Amino acid sequence: MVYVRKNVTKLTRTERRRFVEALLEVKRRGEYDEFVRLHITHFVGDGDRGLRAAHMTPSFLPWHRRFVLDLETALRRVDSSVTVPYWDWTQDRRATALPWTDDLLGGNGRPSDRQVMTGPFAYRTGNWTIRAGVTQGAFLTRDLGRARSPIDLPTKAELQQALDDPVYDVAPWNSTVRKGFRNKMEGWGSGRSSWRNHNRVHRWVGGAMLGGASVNDPVFWLHHAFVDLQWQRWQQRHRAHRYLPDRPPGRGSGQYRRIVARHERLPPWNVTPDQLEDVSAIYRYA
């Protein structure tokens, strides 16, 4: 049966509570930290060796689609009524609006060390200790809006610029491309201009949302559900265009064995980007 992912602002109080309780239970079971470790492992950049599957690559969108699906499956094993809501950061732009309420994700970090002190994921509750990360910090941190060097969340117009591009991705299939929906959505570039759409949201939240261990902040899932919704919208708008590249780069290419083509296996799963393009039989957005 197809289930529904809602805008976080449309969740009832009961739905908020059940979503939070399911997340805390997945964390208690030790499963959540495995999601963090998996993301760290696959956070491979242009300058690193080996295959890029999750970031700076065409498979950014299908990789995270499957990743969110796996978390959602874990949540639904706890409570079958739960789905991952999405956060529309073009609409809900204040640091005091949803999802930053005490009954959902909690609020900003305190000025001294950016530790989140409110909500169910605050370290002092004893339910959300950081065990997998790139630093030694044990508590969740946030710097909503970046206090010392403020930035804004992406606008509807900036998101529209990505949606308007009819091509999915272009060579050299990395963080340097200026055309294609994938990188305009992911948001890589040079200097401060690299903070577009997806990337700028991570920067705006700050704290734990920076870098490969960004999964430690539960807002990661709401953010990526919204990114996933944009991919669906792009697909509906540009029906003649699909995931690229269709075929893997040849031996003479600098991207040889560094990216995943449409019909190649997307690690760590036994699934291809082609198989993840249509999820209408699994879920829909409301």
Characterization of this structure:
The chain is an all-alpha fold and 286 residues long. It has one domain (3-102, 152-285): Orthogonal Bundle (di-copper center containing domain from catechol oxidase). The chain contains 7 helices and 2 strands; from the N terminus they run E-H-H-H-H-H-H-H-E. The two termini are 16 Å apart.
Biggest beta-sheet profile: 2 strands, parallel
**Alpha-carbon distance between the two ends:** 16 Å
Strand arrangement, largest sheet? 1-2
Helix content: 25-40%
Strand content: under 5%
- Look at the structure and name the CATH superfamily: Di-copper center containing domain from catechol oxidase
Q: What best-fitting shape do the alpha-carbon axes yield?
A: globular
Short descriptors:
di-copper center containing domain from catechol oxidase
Helix and strand arrangement:
Elements: E1 3-5, H1 13-28, H2 31-41, H3 60-78, H4 156-163, H5 181-186, H6 197-205, H7 219-237, E2 283-285
Parallel strand pairs: 1-2
Helix pairs in contact: 1-3, 3-7
Describe this structure in a few short sentences:
The chain has 286 residues and is mostly helical.
